[in-house]
Structure formats: structure tokens, C-alpha cells
Amino acid sequence: MDREQQVSATPPDLKARATSKAAGIPGVKHVIAVASGKGGVGKSTTSCNLALGFAALGLKTGILDADIYGPSQQKLFGLRGKPRQLGPRMLEPLERFGVKVMSIGFLVEEDSAMIWRGPMVISAITQMLREVAWDDLDILVVDLPPGTGDAQLTMAQQAPLAGAIIVSTPQDIALIDARRGIAMFQKVSIPILGLIENMSSFCCPTCNHVTPIFGHGGARTEAERRGIPYLGEIPLDMQIRKTSDEGRPIVAIEPDGVHAKHYVSIAREVWTAIVTGAAHRPPPRIVIE
Ligand SMILES: Nc1ncnc2c1ncn2[C@@H]1O[C@H](COP(=O)(O)OP(=O)(O)OP(=O)(O)O)[C@@H](O)[C@H]1O
């Protein structure tokens, strides 16, 4: 059953867009999306450190900040300045810690409000995807905005996604939203590369007591229930927060530290799934018309 048949039970608008084939991005071998159903669960921090994890594996890596309403990759990577124009339509991504970065945050003032309607958001994301000189990347990580709106759907349908990673905290409330994200990607037949539990537990730096502030293990249970890979957990840790705020992400500045090892190991697992084609695909649905 092909992709067009699988989406035929979805609303007409979704179906029409789902059938438009996602064309490849010149110079980019694999594109993955990092998504979350809910805001503030650490999706951007995870995308940034995962991208650095791919780079640590020796892969040529880029990151696209598709979070139009709240871009943060420019800050996480400690980058300032505007991308250089290369000809009439092409922009050169900025680069730090060996990762090429493009974000709407480079193009608008930090405190300007992004009051854009859906079509403008879609056009901006499409341009950042296709009118940027990514140039010979093994992997492009796309940091999606939270939720399952227009921007997410556009990426799911217009970018040639190898798969999506869902980030959630262990709480029920975040997992309910994560489920919606999973369902959206499955509806458009994008493989789910796995679920990451962020802010999984807090280890007190003075007494080493571990406190599951947002609960613990919820994402693993959810992944098992849905039959999708569980990629692991990242603790709630002040160093992760502090280094992110300072624009010196933990994988870049402490590459041999315990957190970097976590992120790199997740990156390795994801990369293996991509190149072996082992990414989880939803079972084909029987459609009666
Ligand atoms: N594992 C972690 N430990 C400590 N702090 C974290 C961790 N992950 C993220 N944070 C912090 O939580 C806050 C929110 O993280 P982030 O911006 O990555 O979330 P998000 O899901 O991308 O948010 P948004 O929905 O606004 O895009 C940031 O201050 C970040 O530094």
C-alpha cells in the first residue's frame, strides 16, 4: 500500500498535500525532524545536542530551526549575525562547533513578535529548507515548533524526512501531547525513529539523591505501548540548562562528560536506524472507499 492510499482516510486538505511528493534537498543525504507535542519539554536543547552528537560521530551535520514563533538555535549555538547572501535566492548557513545552523532567529530582531499566518510560516520554512546552501551534509536535524499545526505538517509532507524523533517529559500531560505528534507523523507515513524522555530525573549534585521531579519512565512505557523505539532518557541537570543558556552546549564543551555520552549514544542509535532502514514504520492501514 503506498503513501497516497494510506492517507486516503484523512481530511481532503491533508490528503491533497500529503500526495505532493517531498523532493530531495540538494546536498543533504538525510533529514530528520525533532518534535514535541507540548512546548517547553526541551525539544530545542535536545535537537542542538543531538546535532552535536551526530557531528561527534564524524557526520557532516546541519540544524534547521523551524520553530518560527520561538527560534532558539541561534542562542543555543551562541551565534550572532546574519547569513551571507549567495546569489539572489541562496543563503549561507552560519557554522559553530562543526554544525551548520540556519534559524529565522538570524533574520529577525530578537524581541520582534512573529505575527505570521500559516502560509507565511510555511513559506519561511520551505525557504530555509531549500534556499540555504547546506552543501554536502550527511544529516540535517530539523527542530520543529511544538504541536501538530501547519508548520509541522508542512515539514512532514514537504521535507524528505527519514524519520521523526519525539521528545517528551515523563508527565502524563506531556505524553498525551506526544501521542498526538506520533499520530500526526504516522498519518503521513513518516517513520518514528523513537521517543526521548527529557528531564527524566534530577540528581542532587551535593548528596547524589535522585528525584523524579516530573515522574520517571512514562516515555519508555508509552514507547513500548506504541511499539516504537525508546531512545533513552536525559536527566534534568543544571549543567545542561546553564550551558544551553550560555550558547556553549554541553556536548560541545564537555565531549567526554556523561551527558555528551548520552546524546552521542542516542545519535548513534538514530543514525544506525536511518542507514539500515530499520526506522519504525506504522503498519499499513486498510482503507475502504
Ligand atoms: N535536560 C535538561 N536539564 C535541564 N534543563 C533543561 C533540559 N532540557 C531543557 N532544559 C531547559 O528547559 C528550558 C526549555 O528548553 P527548550 O527551549 O529546549 O524547550 P522546547 O521544548 O524547545 O521549548 P519551546 O516549546 O519553547 O520551543 C530551557 O531553559 C532549557 O535550558
Automatic annotation (TrEMBL):
One of its GO terms (molecular function) is ATP hydrolysis activity. ATP binds at G37, K38, G39, G40, V41, G42, K43, S44. Homodimer. The keyword Transport does not apply. This is Iron-sulfur cluster carrier protein. It comes from Bradyrhizobium retamae. One of its GO terms (biological process) is iron-sulfur cluster assembly. InterPro entries: Mrp/NBP35_ATP-bd, NUBPL-like, P-loop_NTPase, YlxH/NBP35. Residues 1-20 are annotated as: Disordered. Keywords: ATP-binding, Hydrolase, Iron, Iron-sulfur, Metal-binding, Nucleotide-binding. The keyword DNA-binding does not apply. Pfam families: ParA (PF10609). Belongs to the Mrp/NBP35 ATP-binding proteins family.
